[in-house]
């Protein structure tokens, strides 16, 4: 099993990344802010526009350490990775299936099965853990509707119908999402997804979490030899890691949504951690992002028993394991891609 290493998140504005021997050097106006050994890192995520030296990018590419550049608000800019180490046959199979809607639907169907199943059990667990805090009858009703949609998803034979059922499932799930916010209701509420830009505190956190999850998933796919930019459900678009978006669907609720809810309900974030821009966009402050990233790293170290493998692994390796299972299916080692089914 692959070892879970650290991700270096560089959040301080105007920080330049350089190479110093086998270390990454953080510089600001020629001042050294820090120096870290690269052998402990599996990826670097930099927020801002200053950039990195060609020497550092070359060193990281040779050693399969990805470097991702985001804006200060967390919007994806670019990603530097090394040459593909996956075999040609694997990627040719991926490209062939991506161009065949019938075959692509079979895989996409399992991604969405995992997503809807996991959303259903998030709601079931809420009724078990907080029966006096949520509308149990409504949660049970939505859970039942998700069960019905699961059956339709399993019978879908084209991407259009699959996207339609996935959209319906999202509507039902979002209808009760606000009830899962148990604390700080005066400052944290959810009335629906707003993305570009996020219009409230909850959406700001969800967007940031999804960005981090997409980056982790893309890195995992590239590690096992797959092309993160050629998907089965999400259409190909320049600069979009479509397969990463596909694979992370089953992890959005159980990983990102529950993480955001826990920060709110534990009062690890407050209203003072957000700013509203003139255009109505709501963003986290620099300090809030640092706290968020630290908690994200801690979450990745927590252990979970993988439902398919039956082995204990850190949460942070779940995208890697699912990528590996997908690669095994494409190679013909598995009869079907097994989605991550949490309960």
UniProtKB/TrEMBL annotation:
It comes from Paenibacillus oralis. Its cofactor is Mg(2+); Mn(2+). Transmembrane segments: none annotated. Belongs to the CRISPR-associated endonuclease Cas1 family. CRISPR (clustered regularly interspaced short palindromic repeat), is an adaptive immune system that provides protection against mobile genetic elements (viruses, transposable elements and conjugative plasmids). CRISPR clusters contain spacers, sequences complementary to antecedent mobile elements, and target invading nucleic acids. CRISPR clusters are transcribed and processed into CRISPR RNA (crRNA). Acts as a dsDNA endonuclease. Involved in the integration of spacer DNA into the CRISPR cassette. PANTHER family: CRISPR-ASSOCIATED ENDONUCLEASE CAS1 1 (PTHR34353:SF2). Mn(2+) binds at residues 166, 234, 249. Pfam families: Cas_Cas1. One of its GO terms (biological process) is defense response to virus. The gene is cas1c. The keyword Magnesium applies. Homodimer, forms a heterotetramer with a Cas2 homodimer. This is CRISPR-associated endonuclease Cas1.
């Amino acid at each position: 099993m692959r070892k879970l290493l650290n991700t270096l998140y560089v959040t301080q504005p105007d920080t330049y990344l350089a190479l110093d021997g086998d270390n990454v050097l953080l510089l600001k106006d020629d001042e050294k802010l820090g120096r870290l050994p690269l052998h402990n890192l599996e990826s670097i995520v930099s927020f801002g526009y200053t950039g990195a030296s060609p020497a550092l990018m070359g060193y990281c590419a040779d050693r399969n350490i990805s470097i991702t550049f985001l804006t200060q608000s967390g919007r994806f800019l670019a990603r530097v990775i090394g040459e593909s180490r996956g075999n040609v046959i694997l990627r040719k199979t991926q490209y062939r299936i991506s161009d065949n809607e019938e075959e692509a639907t079979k895989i996409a169907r399992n991604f969405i099965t995992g997503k809807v199943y996991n959303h259903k059990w998030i709601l079931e667990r809420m009724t078990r853990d907080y029966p006096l805090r949520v509308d149990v009858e409504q949660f049970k009703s939505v859970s039942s509707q998700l069960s019905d949609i699961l059956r339709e998803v399993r019978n879908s034979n084209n991407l259009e119908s699959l996207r339609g059922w996935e959209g319906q499932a999202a509507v039902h799930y979002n209808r009760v999402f606000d009830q899962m916010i148990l604390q700080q209701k005066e400052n944290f509420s959810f009335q629906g997804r707003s993305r570009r830009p996020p219009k409230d505190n909850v959406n700001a956190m969800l967007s940031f979490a999804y960005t981090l999850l997409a980056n982790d998933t893309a890195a995992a796919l590239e590690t096992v030899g797959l092309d993160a930019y050629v998907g089965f459900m999400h259409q190909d678009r320049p600069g979009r890691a479509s397969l990463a978006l596909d694979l992370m669907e089953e992890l959005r609720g159980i990983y990102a949504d529950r993480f955001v809810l826990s920060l709110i309900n534990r009062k690890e974030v407050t209203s003072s951690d957000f700013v509203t821009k003139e255009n109505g966009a709501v963003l986290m402050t620099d300090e809030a992002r640092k706290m968020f990233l630290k908690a994200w790293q801690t979450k990745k170290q927590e252990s979970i028993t993988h439902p398919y493998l039956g082995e204990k692994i850190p949460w942070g390796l779940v995208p890697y394991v699912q990528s590996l299972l997908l690669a095994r299916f494409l190679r013909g080692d598995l009869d079907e891609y097994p989605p991550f089914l949490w309960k």
